[in-house]
């Protein structure tokens, strides 16, 4: 009876072990690769409870989410022979877990392969660009990042690693300490030369504008003076004609009018005037 009891207990334990060994759980944000004697057989991508053959099959977990890898700063030579320190990061994910496991086995192995591909692409691309362009042109930097991303993605696709490269970005480009001051001094000298050229061009343009404005003003004043003289001459001629016409119609009245005008001018400041009383000029003043 006791022997039968123990056999039952052992059978239950064995069944429990078999059942437990055949089940595995896939969590959100992960792949489970089912291995048979160490070889990848299939991948379970959806979360939930799944089964495998106990003692024969095992599982390994690979991340399903996007990962970020930051490369260590490396020294690269630009097109104009300036050594620079480049710091960049890569966003990537595992697209085919079985290929990834067969070729790289672990995430650290994938990171190592990505680091090699990124370094080679960054070194090749930046060696085609001058340092001034890298640090001063945002649009150029953006184009370089896009080209590096595409280049690294193609390199890893050729290797059939089961990796998708989402983005590669250069975070920082800096000069080694030994080169910084000489490059900064040269950049300052270049900027001062550019500023001096701009100032010289501005002064020359200012002189041209001022000269043109002075010439235009002189021409306008000369034309205005000529027009004024012409108008005055025409006015004087017309006035003389009016006077002549008036004198011709009534010479006596015209003579009296001119005499009265002379009184206005002569007596303007109340002067003392001495003249014979019988003078026609004086007789008009005294009312005779």
Distance between the termini: 180 Å
Number of β-strand runs:
9
**Helix content estimate:** 55-70%
Shape: rod-shaped
CATH architecture assignment of the domain at 67-175: 2-Layer Sandwich
User: What would CATH call the homologous superfamily of the domain at 67-175?
Assistant: Band 7 domain
**Percent of residues in beta strands?**
15-25%
Stated plainly, the CATH topology of the domain at 67-175 is called Tetrahydropterin Synthase, Chain A
Uncertain residue segments: none
Secondary structure class reads alpha+beta
Provide the gyration radius in Å. 53 Å
* Helical segment count: 8
Give, in order, the helices and strands.
Answer: HEEEEEEEEHHHHEHHH
Mean pLDDT level: 78
The main sheet comes to: 4 strands, antiparallel
Kindly provide the name of the CATH class of the domain at 67-175. Alpha Beta
């Amino acid at each position: 009876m006791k022997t039968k009891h123990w056999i039952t207990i052992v059978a239950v334990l064995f069944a429990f072990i078999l059942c437990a060994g055949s089940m595995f759980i896939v969590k959100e944000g992960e792949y489970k690769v089912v291995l048979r004697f160490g070889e990848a057989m299939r991948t379970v991508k959806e979360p939930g409870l799944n089964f495998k053959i106990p003692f024969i099959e095992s599982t390994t977990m690979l991340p399903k989410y996007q990962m970020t890898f930051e490369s260590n700063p490396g020294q690269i030579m630009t097109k104009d022979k300036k050594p620079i320190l480049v710091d960049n990061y890569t966003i990537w994910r595992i697209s085919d877990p079985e290929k990834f496991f067969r070729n790289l086995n672990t995430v650290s192995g994938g990171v190592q392969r990505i680091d090699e591909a990124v370094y080679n692409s960054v070194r090749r691309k930046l060696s085609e660009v001058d340092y001034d362009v890298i640090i001063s042109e945002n649009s150029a930097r953006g184009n370089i990042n896009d080209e590096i991303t595409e280049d690294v993605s193609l390199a890893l696709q050729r290797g059939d690693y089961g990796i998708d490269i989402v983005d590669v970005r250069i975070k920082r480009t800096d000069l080694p300490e030994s080169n910084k001051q000489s490059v900064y001094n040269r950049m300052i000298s270049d900027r001062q030369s550019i500023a001096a050229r701009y100032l010289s061009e501005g002064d020359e343009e200012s002189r041209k504008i001022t000269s043109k404005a002075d010439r235009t003003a002189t021409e306008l004043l000369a034309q205005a003076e000529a027009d004024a003289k012409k108008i005055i001459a025409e006015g004087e001629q017309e006035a003389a004609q009016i006077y002549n016409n008036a004198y011709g119609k009534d010479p006596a009245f015209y003579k009296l009018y001119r005499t009265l005008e002379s009184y206005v001018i002569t007596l303007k400041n109340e002067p003392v005037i001495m003249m014979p009383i019988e003078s026609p000029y004086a007789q008009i003043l005294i009312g005779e």
